[in-house]
Each structure stands twice: as C-alpha cells, then as structure tokens.
Write a structure and sequence with these properties.
With 303 residues, this protein is an alpha/beta fold. The protein has two domains: 230 residues, Rossmann fold (3-Layer(aba) Sandwich), CATH 3.40.50.300; 54 residues, no CATH class. Helix content is 50%, strand content 13%. It binds guanosine-5'-diphosphate and magnesium ion. Guanosine-5'-diphosphate (GDP) binds next to helix 1. It comes from Westerdykella ornata.
Length: 303
C-alpha cells in the first residue's frame, strides 16, 4: 500500500502554513482525509491542530537557551535531532492509509533548503524507507517578489536549488496572488510564471549608466570587483543577469499561481500535486454511499 504526501516549503512568510490550512479545508470540503504534520519548531498557532507536531519532540526555545544558539542554528539542531529520532515520525505515519494526504508544514529558514543535507536525508527516509510515501514538494515564493526582479530571480534560484537537492517531484508556487492582482499585466505575468532572463534587461528600475555603455562597447575591462562598477550598479546587474540566465538555461522552474483565499485556486494547485504523486491512480473504486445514492435514486424516480 502506498502513502501520499506533500512537503510544503519556501522562505519565511511565503504563506506555507496558510496554504496548508487552505489545503486541509479544501480536502475536508471534498470529503478527503488528510494528516497534518508540523515540522516548524517555531510555529505557535494553528487553524487545524497538527496530528504530529515537532514541538512534542523538541522545542526551539529550549535548544536556543540550552545550546546558546540563534534561531537558525537552533533550527538546524532541531532537525538533526529529528533525524536521530525518526521513530517520532515513522511510528504514527505507519498507521496512515493510502486515502490520506499527508501534509508536511516546513520551517522557512532558507539554510535548510540550500546549505545542509538534512532535508534530502529526511525526504529519503520518508520516500524510500519502510514508509514508502509518494511525495511531492510544493515550494512557495511570494508573488510580490515579481515587483523587484533581482529579488524574484534570487527566490527562483533558491527554488531551483531545492529542486536539484531533493530530487523529488516538485511544484513551484507563486503565493499571495491577490496582492499583485491589477499590478502586473497578464502578458508580463506569464514571463514570471516561466522565468525569462530578458526580464532583467527590461527592468524599469534598472537604468544603465555610462559605465554599462562603456562595458558593452568593450571600452572597459568590466572587472565586477572594481569600485566604479560596483557603485554604478553594473556588477549587480551582471550578477542578476547571470543568475537569471542560469535559471532560464536549466528550464526547470515554472510557477503555478495561488490565492489561498480562493478555493478554486487551492483546488487547481492540489490537482497538480495529485498528478505528481499519482494519488487518484491508487484509489480503490469506493462502494457508493447508501445515504447519497438513495436520495439521488428517489429524486430521479420522483421526476
Ligand atoms: N494577502 C495574502 N496574505 C497571505 C496569503 N497567504 C499568507 N498570507 C499572509 O502572510 C503571512 C505569512 O503567512 P504564513 O502562512 O504564516 O507563512 P509561512 O511562514 O510561510 O508559514 C501571514 O500574515 C498571512 O496572513 C495570501 O494568499 N494572501
Ligand atoms: Mg509557517
């Protein structure tokens, strides 16, 4: 029997927990069972009480105090501790059946996705160990990043880095779409959904100065470390262009749009996740429910 899960990731404040809540609500509305796992040891309040909460294993506050660590170091410690105590996850998850969608709500520290091999090890355990969960990663990036193009490409690079590191089915999501509604033309938005490196050149906030012209004409060596180039913004521009080109060349990242307040939008994102984990293929045809069916038959006969 397979199990099914989604790992909700992304930078702090990207809307991960809000998306988890909207997803649980949507699943409940559609009579689908779900199992909520909170892996953010700093999360305090929940709209739906988690079935597993990492805080029952280890508290970030205690770690920071006892080990004299900051919030980021403390979080890494919590995850290392979780990896040494995987039964905390394995035991309850073994009981979860294939009808359930297991939702993992992750912390936002970017180090976790890009710097250390903790998450790949955790994912390996969940996907390839005895649990054998069909998993999909959902990486959220705030849509307001598209207003600041260098920020958007930096965020996209972190999404790509997570994709390369985790080697699992992946959907990338631009969250909080309600906040950019009416601020970006549809045609432009399309170019963010499939990131296009030319967006860096067309950035309205980037004004190439004399130095950039000299560089393009080959009149300066374009040393990115020279004070002149740094101060003129030329070095920053070239860095962004290189990052954007790298993302464009890999052609791996594209985004789905999400407005967590809009149930259709949540449903659309869920259908991509379902496809990625092949949820529906594994479901047994269900016995028709008596209460619903009788009503339909009775009303049909009444007509
Ligand atoms: N306008 C808007 N705000 C949102 C949306 N999703 C989340 N937020 C807000 O963004 C903030 C961070 O959300 P949260 O889900 O806690 O982010 P997390 O740190 O990624 O778990 C909260 O104040 C949310 O109310 C959304 O779709 N639209
Ligand atoms: Mg959260």
């Amino acid at each position: 029997m397979s199990k099914f899960g989604v790992l909700v990731m992304g930078p702090a404040g990207a809307g991960k927990s809000t998306f988890c809540t909207a997803l649980i609500q949507h699943l409940q509305n559609n009579k689908r069972p779900c199992y909520y796992v909170n892996l953010d040891p700093a999360a305090e309040e929940f709209a739906f009480e988690p079935d597993i909460d990492i805080k029952d294993l280890i508290s970030l506050e205690d770690v920071m105090e006892e080990m004299s660590l900051g919030p980021n170091g403390g979080l890494i410690y919590c995850f290392e501790f979780l990896l040494e105590n995987l039964d905390f996850l394995t035991d309850p998850l073994e009981e979860v059946t294939d009808e359930y969608l297991i939702i993992f709500d992750m912390p936002g520290q970017i180090e976790l996705y890009t710097h250390v091999p903790i998450l790949p090890n955790l994912v390996k355990h969940l996907m390839r160990g005895s649990l054998n969960i069909n998993m999909c990663a959902a990486y959220l990036l705030e849509s307001t990043f598209i207003i600041d193009r260098p920020k958007f490409f930096a965020g996209t690079l972190s999404a790509m880095s997570a994709m390369l590191m985790l080697e699992m089915p992946h959907v990338n999501i631009l969250s909080k779409m309600d906040l950019v509604k009416g601020r970006v033309a549809k045609r432009d938005l399309k170019r963010f959904l499939n990131p296009d490196a030319d967006l860096v050149d067309e950035d309205p906030s980037w004004r190439p100065g004399k130095d950039q012209e000299e560089l393009e004409e080959g009149r300066t060596d374009g040393d990115p470390a020279s004070t002149k180039n740094v101060m003129a913004g030329t070095s920053f521009y070239r860095l962004n262009k290189a990052v954007a080109q790298l993302i464009d060349d890999f052609s791996m990242v594209s985004f789905l749009k999400l407005d967590a307040q809009d149930e259709d939008s949540v449903g659309a994102v869920l259908s991509y996740i379902d496809d990625a984990i092949q949820y529906h293929e594994a479901q047994e045809p269900k016995e028709p429910r008596d209460d619903i069916d009788t009503n339909i038959i009775e009303s049909a006969m009444g007509d």
